[in-house]
Recover the amino acids of this structure.
C-alpha cells in the first residue's frame, strides 16, 4: 500500500540517505513526480512558487519499510539558518531607517502647520478687532504692527512720547517713524493737556497712518497746530483726516504742504471748511490742485466765515482757477491772507482775482502773486487794487515780468498807499529807469520798511538813482539788491548813501561783482 506526501516548494532542500535516494519519473496525469529507489542519485529542490506543491508517492513492498522511511524523514534535523540571518541583517536596518524617517517627517509636518494657522487667524481678524484703544502710548497698536517694531524702535518712540507729554511745542519732523510709529505716538495726544503745536512732517506717513488720529483728535481740546507736510497722504489720506477733523473744536492751523493732494482731496477739504468752525490757517502748498479743486475751495469760502489764511502756492490753478476763487472771495468776510505764488494765473487771472478782491467784504492784509507770469498789463490791475486797499500790508510780485512799465504803475500806486510795509518786486526785469521811479516813491512814502529789488538788472545807474533818494528820504530798514549788476561803481553810490542814511539795518548786495576795497569804503 502506498502513501502520498505533500511538501511546499519553498521548503529547504533535503538530502536523503544513500539507501533511500530517489529518482524522478514523470507521471502522465499528475503535477508531481513518482519517486523510485535509486542508489546513485539525489534531489535538491528549490522554491519557485508558494502556490504549487509537489506530490511525492513512494511504493514499498512492506508496511514496515514505509514506516521506517516516514520516521527517518521526520527525524531529519533542519538545515542552518544562515540565509535567514543574512536577509534579516539587511531588512532590519532598512526597516528601522524607514520608520525613523516617517516619524521625523510627521513631526516636521506638524511644526510647519502651526505657522499658517496663526497667520490666518490674524488675517481673518477685522481691523477693529486688531486695534485695542487706550490712552497709554504704544498700546494702540495693531497686532501685526506691534510685531514690526523692535525693542530699539520702541525705546526711541517712548522718547518721542515723552516729548509730547513735556513740551507745548514739539517738532518730530523727519524722524521717519512711518505709520507704525504714528499709531504708537498718536495716543499721546488723546487727552494731552500740554502740547499745543506738533509737527509730524516728513515721516513717511500714508493714508493708513492717518487712521491713528481717529478717536484721538476728537478727544483733544488743547492742540492748536498740526503739521503733516511732506507725507504721501494722497487724496485718500486727506479725506480720512477731514472726516476726523469735522468734530474737532481746537485745531486752528492745519499744514498739508506737499502731501500729493489733488482735486478730490481739495473737495474733501472744502467740505471740512463748510462744517468746521474753528480752523483759521490752511496750508495746501506744492500739491496738485487744479481748476476743479480751486472751484471747490471757492465754494467753501462762500459759506465759511472763520478761515483767515489760505495758502495755495505751487499748484495748478491757472486763470480759470483764479477766476473761480475770485467768485468765492466776493462774499467772504473772514479771509486775511491769500497765497497764490506759482499758479500761472497770468494777466487774465490777475484781472479776475483783483475784481473779486475789490468786492471782498473782509480786510486782505497779504497778497502773494509771485511767479505767475504777470506782465505790465497785469501790473495795472494790481496797482489799481493797491490804490484802493486800506488794509494791505504785504504785497509780493516776485519773479514776474512787469518790467519798467509795470514798475512805474506800481510805484505810482504806492505813493498814495499808507498801509503796505513790505513790497517785493524782485526778478521782474526792472532796469535803471524803473528803479528811478520806484525811488521817487520814498519821497512821499514813509510806511514801506522792507524793499526787495533783487534779480533786476538795475546796474550802477539804478543804484545811483535809488541811493540819492534813500540818503535822506524814506524809512526803509531792509534793502535787498542782490544779483542786480551794480558793480563796484554802483557799490560806491550805496556806500555814500549809507554815510547819511540812519534807517537801513539790513543790506543785501550779494553777487554784484564788488571788490574788497569797495566793501570797506564805509
Amino acid at each position: 500500500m502506498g502513501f502520498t506526501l505533500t511538501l511546499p516548494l519553498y521548503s529547504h532542500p533535503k538530502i536523503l540517505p544513500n539507501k533511500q535516494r530517489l529518482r524522478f519519473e514523470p507521471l502522465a496525469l499528475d503535477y508531481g513526480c513518482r519517486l523510485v529507489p535509486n542508489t546513485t542519485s539525489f534531489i535538491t529542490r528549490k522554491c519557485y512558487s508558494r502556490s504549487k506543491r509537489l506530490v511525492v508517492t513512494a511504493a514499498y513492498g512492506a508496511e514496515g519499510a514505509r514506516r521506517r522511511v516516514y520516521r527517518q524523514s521526520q527525524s531529519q534535523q533542519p538545515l542552518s539558518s544562515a540565509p535567514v540571518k543574512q536577509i534579516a541583517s539587511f531588512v532590519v536596518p532598512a526597516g528601522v531607517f524607514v520608520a525613523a524617517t516617517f516619524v521625523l517627517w510627521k513631526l516636521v509636518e506638524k511644526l510647519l502647520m502651526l505657522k499658517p494657522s496663526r497667520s490666518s487667524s490674524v488675517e481673518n481678524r477685522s481691523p477693529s478687532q486688531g486695534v485695542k484703544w487706550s490712552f497709554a502710548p504704544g498700546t494702540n497698536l495693531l497686532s501685526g504692527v506691534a510685531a514690526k517694531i523692535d525693542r530699539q524702535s520702541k525705546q526711541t518712540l517712548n522718547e518721542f512720547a515723552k516729548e509730547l507729554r513735556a513740551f507745548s511745542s514739539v517738532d518730530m519732523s523727519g524722524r521717519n517713524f512711518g505709520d507704525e510709529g504714528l499709531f504708537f505716538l498718536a495716543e499721546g495726544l488723546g487727552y494731552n493737556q500740554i502740547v499745543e503745536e506738533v509737527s509730524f512732517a516728513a515721516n513717511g506717513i500714508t493714508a493708513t497712518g492717518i487712521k491713528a488720529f481717529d478717536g484721538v483728535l476728537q478727544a483733544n481740546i488743547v492742540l492748536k497746530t498740526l503739521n503733516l507736510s511732506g507725507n504721501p497722504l494722497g487724496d485718500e489720506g486727506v479725506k480720512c483726516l477731514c472726516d476726523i477733523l469735522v468734530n474737532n473744536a481746537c485745531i486752528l492751523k492745519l499744514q498739508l504742504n506737499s502731501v500729493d493732494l489733488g482735486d478730490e482731496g481739495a473737495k474733501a477739504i472744502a467740505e471740512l471748511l463748510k462744517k468746521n468752525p474753528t480752523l483759521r490757517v490752511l496750508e495746501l502748498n506744492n500739491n496738485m490742485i487744479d481748476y476743479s479743486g480751486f472751484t471747490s475751495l471757492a465754494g467753501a469760502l462762500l459759506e465759511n466765515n472763520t478761515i483767515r489764511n489760505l495758502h495755495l502756492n505751487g499748484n495748478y490753478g491757472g486763470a480759470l482757477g483764479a477766476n473761480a476763487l475770485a467768485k468765492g472771495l466776493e462774499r467772504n468776510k473772514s479771509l486775511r491772507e491769500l497765497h497764490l505764488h506759482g499758479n500761472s494765473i497770468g494777466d487774465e487771472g490777475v484781472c479776475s482775482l483783483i475784481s473779486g478782491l475789490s468786492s471782498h467784504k473782509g480786510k486782505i492784509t497779504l497778497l502773494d502773486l509771485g511767479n505767475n507770469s504777470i506782465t505790465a498789463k497785469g501790473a495795472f490791475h494790481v496797482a489799481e487794487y493797491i490804490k484802493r486797499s486800506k488794509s494791505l500790508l504785504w504785497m509780493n510780485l516776485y519773479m514776474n515780468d512787469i518790467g519798467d512799465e509795470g514798475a512805474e504803475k506800481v510805484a505810482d500806486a504806492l505813493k498814495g498807499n499808507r498801509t503796505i510795509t513790505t513790497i517785493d518786486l524782485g526778478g521782474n526785469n526792472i532796469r535803471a529807469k524803473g528803479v528811478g521811479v520806484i525811488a521817487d516813491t520814498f519821497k512821499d512814502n514813509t510806511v514801506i520798511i522792507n524793499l526787495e529789488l533783487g534779480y533786476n538788472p538795475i546796474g550802477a545807474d539804478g543804484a545811483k538813482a535809488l541811493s540819492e533818494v534813500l540818503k535822506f528820504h524814506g524809512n526803509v530798514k531792509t534793502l535787498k539788491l542782490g544779483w542786480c549788476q551794480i558793480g563796484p561803481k554802483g557799490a560806491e553810490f550805496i556806500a555814500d548813501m549809507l554815510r547819511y542814511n540812519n534807517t537801513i539795518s539790513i543790506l543785501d548786495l550779494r553777487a554784484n561783482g564788488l571788490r574788497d576795497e569797495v566793501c570797506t569804503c564805509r
About this structure: The longest helix spans residues 82-123. The mean pLDDT is 81. The first strand starts at residue 3 and ends at 8.
